[in-house]
Design a protein that fits this description.
GO molecular function: N-acetyltransferase activity
CATH topology: Aminopeptidase
Enzyme class: transferase
Family: Belongs to the acetyltransferase family. RimI subfamily.
CATH architecture: 3-Layer(aba) Sandwich
Distance between the termini: 13 Å
Number of strands: 8
InterPro entries: AcTrfase_RimI/Ard1, Acyl_CoA_acyltransferase, GNAT_dom, YpeA/RimI_acetyltransf
CATH class: Alpha Beta
Order of helices and strands: EEHHEEEHEHEEH
Protein name: Putative acetyltransferase
Largest sheet: 8 strands, mixed
Helix content: 25-40%
Shape: globular
Bound molecules: coenzyme A
Oligomer: single chain
Length: 172
C-alpha cells in the first residue's frame, strides 16, 4: 500500500527481522521504557495471534526507511495494542493513524471485534490519535507504569468497524 505526499511515500507492510535495528532506534527515541529487541523477536515468532507491522518512508533516490512500528496481540475476539511508535522526525504526517487503522483492519479480518490499549494519562499526542479512532476510556490502571509511577488509562474501541478503519487507512 502506498500513499503519495509532497516529499515521499508511506508504505505499510508486515514487519520482518531485518527491521529490528530501525525499530529499536524508534523505540529508544519514543519511550521511557522501550521494548527490547528480544520483545520484537518474540512477537515476530508468534506468527499466529500477533500482528507486527511497520510503516516505511520512501523518498527516491534514498532507500526506504522504517519510521513506525506497531504490535497487536489477538486474544480471541480482542485486538490488544502492545506498542505503537513513530520516529520523532516523522510525526504529524498521519503515519500512526494509517498504520494503526491498517493493523486493526487486519485484526478484524482475523476475527477481532473490539480493540483495547493502555496509555499514559499524560500522553496527549497518543490521546489525540486514539480519540480520532473513537477509543473511549473505560478504566484506570493505578501505577501501571512503574518507571514514573504513572497511571494508565484503559481504552477500548468497540465495535471495530472495517469500513471506518478502511477510511482511516486511506484518508490522506
Ligand atoms: C502518538 C504517536 C504514535 C502519534 O504518531 P503520529 O504519526 O504523529 O500521529 P498522526 O500524525 O497519525 O496523528 C493522528 C491523528 O491524531 C491527531 N494528533 C496527533 N498528534 C497530535 C497533536 N500533537 N496535536 C493534535 N492532534 C494530534 C491528529 O488529529 C491526527 O489526525 P490526522 O491524521 O487526521 O491529522 C507519536 O506521537 C509517538 O510515537 N509518540 C511516542 C510513542 C507513543 O506515545 N506511543 C503511543 C503509546 S500508547
Amino acid at each position: 500500500m502506498r500513499s503519495k505526499t509532497d516529499e515521499g511515500y508511506i508504505r505499510l507492510r508486515p514487519m520482518t527481522a531485518a527491521d529490528l535495528s530501525p525499530i529499536s532506534a524508534i523505540e529508544q527515541a519514543s519511550f521511557l521504557t522501550p521494548w527490547a529487541e528480544k520483545d520484537f523477536i518474540k512477537a515476530l515468532a508468534q506468527n499466529q495471534g500477533t500482528l507486527c507491522w511497520v510503516a516505511e518512508w520512501i523518498e527516491e533516490p534514498h532507500p526506504p526507511r522504517v519510521v513506525a512500528n506497531v504490535i497487536v496481540w489477538l486474544i480471541l475476539d480482542e485486538a490488544h495494542i502492545g506498542t505503537l511508535a513513530v520516529h520523532p522526525e516523522y510525526r504529524g504526517r498521519s503515519i500512526a493513524r494509517r498504520l494503526l487503522a491498517k493493523v486493526l483492519l487486519e485484526a478484524t479480518r482475523l476475527g477481532a471485534t473490539h480493540a483495547l490499549l493502555e496509555v499514559r494519562a499524560c500522553n496527549q499526542d497518543a490521546l489525540h490519535l486514539y480519540n480520532k479512532f473513537g477509543f473511549a476510556v473505560v478504566g484506570v490502571r493505578k501505577g501501571y507504569y512503574q518507571d514514573a509511577g504513572e497511571d494508565a488509562l484503559l481504552m477500548t474501541l468497540n465495535p471495530l468497524v472495517p469500513e471506518i478503519l478502511a477510511e482511516l487507512v486511506d484518508n490522506r
